Backbone:
């Protein structure tokens, strides 16, 4: 697909983008296609998207990056959700992109939802992969469960850091990030964000459990989308797939890629000057 609205093109690029007190590792395939920005799971890296990107196709412009202290990105004093949202703007500015389609998985889906809600003139649309469910899943007992889980993992997480499989964050920082996500996911917090989205959104929903969930907890959380879809006609479920939360990018990448193409087609009609 060639994007007739593109005013300039960029060459393929990979490097570090400075923001605040840190630097983010960014990869941009360049070209004239619609820019698609991929937002990772909470402690994941940009490499998780390789199957999705290959399926979407080389005619699109794919931009991936590692969040603070993840992958090849540098440490920071600020691992807050608001910092994660600001980082989207920093990456877009560094790569000269005015308007983009956002694809977020898990934590990244919540970041994408907030960014799309706050920037309706810049968001072409969003694909939210098994995340951004407005549900009150965090209570005091769950918060303690999260803290206990990360304390237990604290001794071996540093051993995995050379492999790139874990972030360069302490166990307490990771627990705090997870708890902050739980607070932001409450219906009274996330519901209005989703209600305010005016661009096309497609959810790709997994089945079964996620890391740390028990029984049918995750499936009950996913039912919160029913009310969202009833209130906002811009939001739909693009696919419900068989794989679980952790395997969805690996096993159901084709469903995600199809949602990207659908949203890109819907959003392209209103796209003007996608890049500077």
Residues:
């Amino acid at each position: 697909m060639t994007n007739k609205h593109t005013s300039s093109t960029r060459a393929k690029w990979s490097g570090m983008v400075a923001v605040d007190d840190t630097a983010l590792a960014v990869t941009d395939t360049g070209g004239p296609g619609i820019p698609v920005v991929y937002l990772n799971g909470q402690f994941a890296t940009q490499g998780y998207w390789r199957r999705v990107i290959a399926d979407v196709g080389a005619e699109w412009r794919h931009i991936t990056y590692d969040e603070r202290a993840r992958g090849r990105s540098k440490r920071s004093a600020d691992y807050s959700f608001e910092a994660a949202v600001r980082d989207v703007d920093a990456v877009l500015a560094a790569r000269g992109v005015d308007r983009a389609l956002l694809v977020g998985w898990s934590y990244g889906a919540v970041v994408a939802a907030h960014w799309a809600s706050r920037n309706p003139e810049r968001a072409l649309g969003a694909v939210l992969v098994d995340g951004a469910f407005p549900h009150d899943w965090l209570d005091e007992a769950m918060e303690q469960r999260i803290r206990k889980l990360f304390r237990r993992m604290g001794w071996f997480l540093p051993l995995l850091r050379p492999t790139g499989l874990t972030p360069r964050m302490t166990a307490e920082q990771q627990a705090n990030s997870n708890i902050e996500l739980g607070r932001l996911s409450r219906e009274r917090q996330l519901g209005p964000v989703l209600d305010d989205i005016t661009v096309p959104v497609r959810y790709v929903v997994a089945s079964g459990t996620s890391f740390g969930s028990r029984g049918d907890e995750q499936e009950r959380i996913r039912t919160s989308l029913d009310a969202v879809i009833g209130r906002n006609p811009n939001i739909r479920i693009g696919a419900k797939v068989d794989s679980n939360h952790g395997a969805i990018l690996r096993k159901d990448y084709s469903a995600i890629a199809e949602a990207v193409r659908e949203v890109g087609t819907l959003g392209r009609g209103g796209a003007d000057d996608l890049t500077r």
